[in-house]
UniProtKB/TrEMBL annotation, chain A:
It comes from Bradyrhizobium forestalis. The keyword Cell membrane applies. CDD domains: TM_PBP2. Residues 297-493 form the ABC transmembrane type-1 domain. GO terms for molecular function: transmembrane transporter activity. GO terms for biological process: amino acid transport. NCBIfam families: HEQRo_perm_3TM. Coiled coil: none annotated. The lineage of its organism: Bacteria, Pseudomonadati, Pseudomonadota, Alphaproteobacteria, Hyphomicrobiales. The keyword Cell membrane applies. PROSITE patterns: ABC_TM1. It is a multi-pass membrane protein. GO terms for cellular component: ATP-binding cassette (ABC) transporter complex. This is Amino acid ABC transporter permease. Keywords: Cell membrane, Membrane, Transmembrane, Transmembrane helix, Transport.
TrEMBL record, chain B:
One of its GO terms (biological process) is amino acid transport. Pfam families: BPD_transp_1 (PF00528). The chain crosses the membrane at residues 24-44, 90-119, 140-158, 188-206, 226-248, 268-287, 369-393. It is found in: Cell inner membrane; Cell membrane. This is Amino acid ABC transporter permease. Keywords: Amino-acid transport, Cell membrane, Membrane, Transmembrane, Transmembrane helix, Transport.
Length: 506, 401
């Protein structure tokens, strides 16, 4: 033991300080490790710096340093008047700003556009912040109530009836079409080779039509009676509200559990009544602004928001149809999705503009904007269907099996268990689709709608502002707007993705 | 005594029910009937309305109009075309123009996309930032915006032909388009092309032979000197014997315009630049994701086997990355082809522009023309997805083996 102790060594003086390790953090460290650590890297850094120098410096010079900030017409932006190489001609944007945002929307009515945009912002922002409560109410307001309100705000006009009248009218149209088809078959049976068969089918169809006519007779009678009274909208509204509340109460479980459904439907109807009263819809509403006067950013936002709101239900329905085991529905969904995904959007818009009017009854004209909206909704719906399908595939089978073990029906399994999880999974993909939809709205300018890009292009031809830098200025302005929207959405999708993958991080 | 396993009951009725109605059984059959009835009703409405509307507008349905004279000119044609040709020929001309702009766009988009992806993956901080800025800016601006930007702002701001920008004295860029030298075939062209084809075929055969030797007998054969000799030496030798295969006719400024050379119309230039830079941003992201998807351990395993860095990349990393890259890359190629239909906005005579645009407004045959246009695009995309599913099947088979 003593041997060990005697050989022990205790250091009595401190070691000299070693030099600090080479700094690898901060700007200096970055330069050392990632920019100038080898001859090749130095060369690449110089190359990158040159690239930036030749793009950033001229852009800043064009947008800020050499720009003209005030003036009355093109003469301010000409080289001979300014005395130097002129950059951006901002007075041109100032002069054209109303056109770029509202199009030809009447100046006195522009508060309606502003109000709609404000409403959209107020409803959308809380929906995007995950921490805020009442998501389902918020989503319902944004996806169901807001589009209706926005339509009456932007387009104007009022209503002549309510749910009952609309249902009656729709059923009547349907019935007339069935009767028409039956009559056509009967008249065809006089000349055709398979006359007896056609006659039988035609008589059956006519019989069906007549039966439906009798069935809906009380409804149509009630509608005509209501239209005869002094207050058709309110009478119709009261009857519709009573019927819908009753149905909700019964479906919600009657006296036992139906109170909640009853309360929520009554609340919805009261809110609807307030909106009708506020906007004076029963007396013709606001003055009508035809959609050919709309333009600029307004059309861009209307088209993209409508596309977003309508494409999601279409996409969900198609995705469920594609996963269904019922042969016809699956085949139809696959064909529908693959068709719209296989053709370019511009041909879809041509289809909606030139072909769709031919498919509708001759006395039935559809507004140009609505036609484009239908085309975009179908097109985007097919893309959303593939996104939703990805989410549905990501849900383990055990979820729906557990739901089936609890005795839930297919509808309840899908709407309460599978879809909420699936949709949450694919929020980033959905947002990415919305980005491409927002970018694709610029295509409506090809079918004679003046969205932001269309208005910009139209403003180039104004001789009052034609200077060499006008086009560049206009593109810079529109580019900044598009970039802000798209970049904002893509950052949001990254944020959601990060949040959804929180459990995978360590 | 052993008991034979009992055969499962045939359950024919159950199988039929499953086949007809899926999991929902007879309910499913009922749903299908209702669905078919609705589809039939919609179809009937469409047909009857279309017939009535066409009668009101005095338009004869059918494809007979394709044999009528078109009567308008197209400013870029790959096959001979005059105004007195038929609408069918207009269709072919437009389709060829679509294909040529797509192919050129795809080539440039791939090159730019790979360069940008390499920039983004580069260890150099500044260069990867430059790549990132490019991708973010390009991806967040609409394609139509970019096409119009190149066409209305950049190309329109170029000088007129007299002051055109000379690119090394052989090509000239002006607001009338790009003028490039045009090749003119000489007597040596035939033998040259034949020898080139022979060289390509021989090189492929050599590669096949070398791979077989490597995989079956473990012999490495160095083939690149022979391939170089076949691909370069053989055509050069024929050139010495038979003379030059073609000469270039250089464009020259005469008066207010260029004589000689061939002119590429500005619409083509704008469309190609916009399409290839736009798609390149997406391709860059795909390539980057593909290369990042190969685990770091693969590179380390390769170097621990004694392979050089280049060999590891070539034999281990790239083949695995390609599996991830190829399907979305094909998708982008398809997107580029579909996006080339935006040509209608600047008047490049592609399929949509000359056929669904000009021909439609001249004849009014909306249903036939739009159906044909959509059908062509649908055919292209279905063919591509068929090829891709074969590729996917092969990849999954080689992974399973």
């Amino acid at each position: 033991m003593s041997d060990v102790i005697s050989s022990s060594f205790v250091r009595r003086d401190l070691l000299a300080e070693r030099p600090a390790p080479v700094k690898t953090t901060g700007f200096i460290g970055l330069m050392r490790t990632r920019l100038f650590n080898s001859p090749t890297n130095i060369l690449l850094t110089i190359l990158g710096a040159l690239l930036l120098w030749f793009t950033i410096v001229p852009s800043v010079k064009f947008l800020m340093v050499d720009a003209i900030w005030s003036g009355r017409d093109r003469s301010a932006c000409l080289v001979e008047n300014a005395g130097f190489a002129v950059g951006a001609c901002w007075p041109y944007i100032q002069a054209k700003l109303p056109q770029l945002i509202y199009g030809f929307y009447p100046e006195a009515e522009r508060w309606r556009v502003n109000l709609t945009l404000l409403l959209a912002a107020v409803l959308l922002l809380p929906l995007l912040v995950p921490r805020l409560p009442a998501k389902s109410l918020n989503a319902g307001l944004f996806f169901a109530a807001f589009p209706v309100v926005a339509f009456f705000l932007l387009h104007g006009g009022g209503i002549k009836g309510f749910g009952l009248s609309w249902t009656a009218g729709l059923l009547q149209l349907f019935d007339e079409s069935i009767l028409g088809a039956g009559q056509a078959l009967l008249s065809l049976s006089k000349t055709s080779a398979i006359a007896p068969l056609l006659w039988v089918v035609g008589s059956l169809v006519v019989l069906l039509g007549t039966a439906i006519q009798w069935l809906i007779f009380p409804l149509t009678w009630l509608r005509d009676y209501i239209q005869g009274t002094g207050q058709p909208v309110w009478a119709d509204f009261a009857i519709t509200a009573a019927i819908v509340c009753l149905i909700a109460f019964v479906l919600g479980g009657g006296v036992r559990t139906g109170g909640r459904a009853l309360a929520s439907s009554i609340g919805t109807f009261i809110a609807t009544a307030i909106v009708i009263k506020l906007m004076d819809l029963d007396h013709g509403g606001l003055s009508i602004v035809a959609t050919n006067l709309w333009g600029g950013l307004l059309v861009t936002l209307v088209v993209s928001v409508t596309g977003i709101v309508t494409s999601l239900p279409i996409g969900i329905a198609l995705a469920l149809g594609r996963r269904s085991t019922i042969p016809l529905i699956r085949i139809f969904s696959i064909a529908f999705i693959e068709f719209w995904r296989g053709v370019p959007l511009i041909t879809v818009l041509f289809f909606a503009t030139y072909m769709l009017p031919l498919f509708l009854p001759g006395n039935f004209t559809v507004d140009g904007l609505v036609r484009a909206l239908i085309g975009i909704a179908l097109f985007t719906g097919a893309y959303q269907a593939e996104n939703v399908r990805g989410g549905l595939a990501a849900i383990p089978r055990g979820q729906s099996e557990a739901a089936a073990a609890l005795g839930l029906s297919w509808w309840k399994t899908t709407s309460l268990i599978v879809l909420p999880q699936a949709l949450r999974h694919v929020i980033p993909n959905l947002v990415n689709s919305f980005i491409s939809l927002f970018k694709d709205t610029s295509l409506v300018s090809i079918v004679a709608l003046f969205d932001l890009l269309g208005s910009l292009r139209a403003s180039f031809s104004d001789p009052k502002w034609s200077t060499p830098s006008t086009a560049f200025t206009g593109f810079a302005f529109a580019g900044i707007i598009y970039f802000m929207f798209c970049f904002g959405m893509s950052r949001y999708s990254l944020f959601v993705e990060h949040r959804l993958n929180a459990h995978r991080r360590n | 005594m052993s008991t034979e396993a009992r055969k499962p009951p045939p359950q024919i009725a159950l199988k039929i029910r499953r086949m007809l109605g899926g999991k929902a059984g007879w309910n499913g059959v009922a749903v299908q009937f209702a669905f078919a009835a609705i589809l039939g009703w919609i179809g009937y409405e469409i047909v009857s309305n279309a017939r009535a509307n066409l009668e009101n507008q005095h338009i004869a349905a059918g494809f007979g109009f394709l044999r009528n004279n078109a009567g308008f000119d197209v400013n870029q044609t790959l096959i001979p075309y005059t105004g007195s040709d038929t609408f069918l020929r207009v269709f072919v001309v437009g389709l060829l123009n679509t294909l040529v702009v797509s192919v050129v766009g795809i080539v440039f988009a791939t090159v730019i996309g790979f360069i940008v992806a390499l920039c983004r993956l580069s260890p150099n901080w500044l260069l990867s930032r430059v790549g990132e800025i490019y991708v973010e800016v390009i991806r967040n601006l609409p394609l139509l915006f970019q096409i119009l930007f190149w066409y209305l702002a950049v190309l329109a701001a170029l000088p007129n032909p007299r002051q055109s920008i000379s690119l090394l004295g052989i090509a000239f860029l002006s607001n009338r388009g790009l003028v490039v030298p045009s090749p003119i075939g000489q007597s040596g062209l035939g033998p040259f092309l034949a020898m080139l084809a022979l060289g390509v075929v021989a090189s492929l055969a050599l590669r096949f032979h070398a791979r077989r030797a490597l995989f079956q007998e473990g012999r490495m054969i160095r083939i690149w000197p022979y391939v170089v000799a076949l691909l370069l030496g053989l055509p050069l030798a024929t050139m010495l014997v038979f003379g030059l295969p073609f000469t270039f006719e250089l464009p020259q400024l005469r008066g207010f315009n260029f004589a000689g050379g061939s002119r590429i119309i500005p619409e083509f230039v704008a469309l190609t630049v916009a399409l290839s830079t736009y798609t390149a941003a997406f391709i860059a992201e795909i390539v980057r994701a593909g290369i990042l998807s190969v685990h770091k351990g693969q590179m380390e395993a390769g170097s621990s086997l004694g392979l050089s860095r280049g060999a590891t990349l070539r034999l281990i990393v790239v083949p695995q990355a390609m599996r991830v890259i190829v399907p979305p890359l094909t998708n982008q190629y398809l997107n580029l082809t579909k996006n080339s239909s935006l040509a209608v906005a600047i008047g490049y005579p592609d399929l949509v522009s000359v056929f669904a645009g000009t021909s439609l407004s001249q004849t009014g045959q909306a249903i036939e023309i739009i159906a044909m246009t959509m059908g062509i695009y649908l055919l292209i995309s279905l063919l591509t997805s068929a090829v891709m599913s074969v590729y996917g099947w092969r990849v999954s088979r080689s992974l399973g083996a």
